[in-house]
Design a protein that fits this description.
- This protein is mainly β.
- It has one domain: TonB-dependent receptor, beta-barrel domain (Maltoporin, Chain A), CATH 2.40.170.20.
- Helix content is 4%, strand content 54%.
- The protein has five helices and 40 strands.
- The strands form seven sheets. It has a 22-stranded antiparallel β-barrel.
- Strand 34 and strand 35 form a beta hairpin.
- It is globular and about 75 Å long.
Length: 720
């Protein structure tokens, strides 16, 4: 839970900007915000407990996963769909891809309890969000847009922070825990999660665990969608906590098994992610300017295995890919404060090592002894960043936030000269360097970049009930290992439309980094019984890293429709509105809408994978120990698409129609420690697909991977 008005204890999380940049605290969200007096509070100032999501200012949301109503989430990418201004694309029942303001993948920073884990699969079957244990997470913080320089390189679209806090104990309490369980009827999805914390003196131990098993679900037409998966994992953390110091060491591990992907040509029989992490937080209490020192260290490993035969029928052309991604890094920062001024100085390091091949045999699935493609040729990207961010009051009502960041980036690959030895008749063995040369006229060489970024933001209290901000920022994102070095060599296929498409996928080692210049503004109003937040943004992108088709463009040497990368200029703009109102003592309405538009300025066509106008409206009636509610959510049609692979990228599967869904939910509290939640999602069994969902490759009757039809669910949570 989050304590208001004092957010310091629960939401520090090493995120100093959260404390110093909050315009005011607005307690509302479009899912499950319940505001009640805390029964155990003894102080003169009454404490309020806020569950669900706390909207603190425009473009910032803070939520507590364990307290949200609605259907259980498959993973963090699925859970983030509940946050205003955030959606996600689906190509399976698991590993949904978050999208914020039309940006995704490495345009977003996903911070997993102080660590980064880069997925190993180039086709995003193991997104970083999929490894963030949402079932036992304490809090999720979402920054929409570039709000701070403190969260590593990139992050032009936003930052998602999934945090597991050190446990808090009541006086005299030395052990505590929680157990959660859930069942969903559509897909026969069973899940369980829990944590146990214990302390001895100032030492503590926290153990988390979770398990989920899902069969294929059905869409609104009753058709099976191949989305079955199994996932399990947990974490162990030991630490020392005093009034001024926190030191902890921990390990977390996730396993996925037999994950089906209707939006891909392969399934994943096995995947795993492991993170080793260490943390230090120390408050300096000597009266000087230095207030806090923070250190995070981590080493993460993602293994991804995918094939086209073990989980689906296949008679020949057997292929298997196995890739590893190791991410090593850390961040050291110090917070200073004097005369109402706040300053954070820091350095962070992020080193990604990515490697993997696709092997195969055309006739014998038990003898996969030939390399068909050197997919990622032992690529390494090292990033060292320096940052400074501070807040300076200008008057009693006006303050200035400023940040600067520098990143030194070095990219290299060690196996670009290795040739494949499983080739089609009439073709010669190829190395990644030979592919790069054929498409771009270059070979992979070591690359060094010097990237600069920063932001300026004015925050102004118009009145005691209204505040606004206006800001400008520049952020830089370097190409990742897939965009630089992918080397998938495949042949040409004939699509149902009759067009010939080359299925090769070739990275570009000579990509320039993206440069985002953003202007954003927001305003919030709070009155007795209601509040509203509005935000808008404009993002001019130079050298946008564009996944395109080879059409013989000026910087592409071939015209065979293979997947390639090049730099273009692009533009993104949009707005978000969110708010709530009390309709009496027990009835509350929450709502939000969001819209993004993207434009490829080089071709003067819409930018691909941009979500349509979406909306969410929730009505909740809450009494002392029970509540009921309904939720209307949906999207308008998306007609602005890049779906022609003969002229543009073809990344969009086509236009999408609008849809509207209705959910019902209820909750009951039993003996203060146990909660039962029931509900039905997609009550009227609508058939629909999120516009960002991948093209359906397993069902010719559907365009995209459809979302689930009607599902009944039951959730049980008990604390002890």
């Amino acid at each position: 839970m989050i304590h208001h008005p004092s957010l310091k204890g629960r939401l520090s999380l090493g995120v100093s900007s959260l404390a110093v940049c909050t315009i005011f605290s607005l307690t509302a969200q479009a899912q499950t915000v319940i505001i009640t007096p805390h029964k155990k509070q003894k102080q003169a100032l009454e404490e309020i407990v806020v569950t669900g999501t706390l909207m603190q200012k425009p473009a910032l949301s803070t939520s507590v996963p364990k307290d949200t109503d609605g259907q259980p989430s498959a993973d963090a990418g699925d859970y983030l769909r509940q946050i205003p201004g955030v959606t996600s694309g689906r190509m399976s029942g698991h590993a949904l891809e978050p999208v914020i303001r039309g940006q995704s993948r490495s345009q977003l920073n996903i911070v997993n309890n102080g660590a980064y884990l880069e997925g190993a699969g180039p086709n995003r079957m193991d997104t970083p969000a999929a490894f963030a244990d949402i079932d036992t997470a304490d809090v999720v913080i979402v920054h929409r847009g570039y709000q701070s320089v403190q969260y590593g390189p990139g992050g032009s679209g936003g930052t998602v922070i999934v945090e597991h806090n050190a446990p808090d104990f009541d006086p005299g309490q030395n052990i505590k825990g929680r157990i959660d369980g859930a069942f969903e009827s559509n897909g026969d999805i069973w899940s369980a999660a829990g944590h146990l914390s214990a302390r001895h003196g100032k030492m503590y131990l926290r153990v988390n665990g979770h398990y989920k098993n899902a069969e294929n679900y059905q869409d609104g037409e009753g058709r099976d969608v191949r989305t079955a998966f199994e996932i399990y994992g947990g974490s162990l953390e030991a630490g020392y906590q005093s009034t001024t110091t926190l030191v902890s060491l921990g390990i977390s591990h996730e396993e996925t098994r037999d994950t089906l992907f209707p939006g891909a040509g392969m399934d994943s029989p096995e995947g795993r992610g492991t993170i080793l992490r260490g943390k230090l937080r120390h408050d300096v209490d000597d009266g000087g300017a230095l207030k806090t020192v923070k250190l995070d260290l981590y080493r993460s490993h993602a293994l991804h295995q995918m094939d086209n035969f073990s989980l689906r029928d296949r008679m020949m052309m057997f292929r298997l890919s196995e890739l590893d991604a190791y991410t090593t890094g850390g961040k050291l920062s110090a917070d200073f404060s004097w005369d109402d001024r706040n300053l954070t100085l820091g350095v962070d390091v992020k080193n990604v090592d990515h490697d993997g091949d696709r092997v195969g045999n055309d006739m014998d699935r038990s003898n996969l002894d030939k390399v068909q493609s050197v997919l990622i040729p032992d690529a390494t990207i090292r990033n060292i960043g320096l940052f400074a961010e501070g807040v300076q009051p200008i008057s009693s009502d006006l303050q200035l936030k400023a940040g600067l960041r520098y990143d030194h980036v070095r990219a290299s690959a060690d196996r670009t000269d290795q040739k494949n030895d499983l080739v089609m008749v009439g073709m010669m063995p190829m190395s990644p360097d030979m592919l790069y040369y054929n498409y771009y006229g270059i070979k992979a060489e070591n690359q060094t970049e010097h990237n600069f970024g920063g932001l300026l933001r004015l925050e102004y209290d118009l009145t005691a009930e209204a505040a606004l901000y206006m800001g400008v920022s520049r952020s830089t994102r370097s190409a990742n290992t897939v965009e630089r070095y992918m080397a998938s060599l495949l042949g040409t296929v004939t699509m149902p439309s009759g067009m010939m498409i080359n299925m090769s996928w070739v990275g570009n080692p000579d990509l320039d980094p993206e440069k985002h210049t953003q202007i954003d503004m927001g305003i919030g109003f709070r009155e007795a019984g209601w509040n509203i937040l509005l935000s808008a943004y404009y993002d001019a992108v130079d050298d946008y890293i564009f996944r395109d088709r080879a059409h013989g463009q000026a910087d592409i040497l071939l015209d065979n429709n293979a997947l390639v990368y090049r730099n273009i200029d692009a533009r993104l703009w949009g707005f978000e509105i969110e708010g709530s109102a009390s309709l009496g003592d027990h009835l509350t309405v929450f709502g939000n809408v969001s819209y993004t538009q993207g434009q490829n300025r080089d071709l003067d066509i819409p930018l691909y994978q941009i979500p349509p106008f979406s909306y969410d409206l929730t009505l909740t009636y809450a009494r002392d120990i029970w509540s009921v509610g309904g939720r209307l959510q949906g999207a308008l049609a998306q007609r602005r698409v890049d779906d022609n692979p003969m002229q543009g990228s073809g990344r969009d599967a086509g236009e999408t129609d609008g849809y509207a869904l209705f959910d019902l939910f209820a909750s009951l509290e039993i003996k203060d420690t146990t909660h039962i939640k029931i509900g039905v999602s997609n009550l009227f069994d609508q058939t629909y697909a999120n516009h960002l969902n991948r093209e359906s490759l397993n069902d010719a009757t559907t365009v995209r991977v459809n979302e689930p039809g009607r599902s009944f669910y039951l959730r049980l949570k008990t604390d002890f």
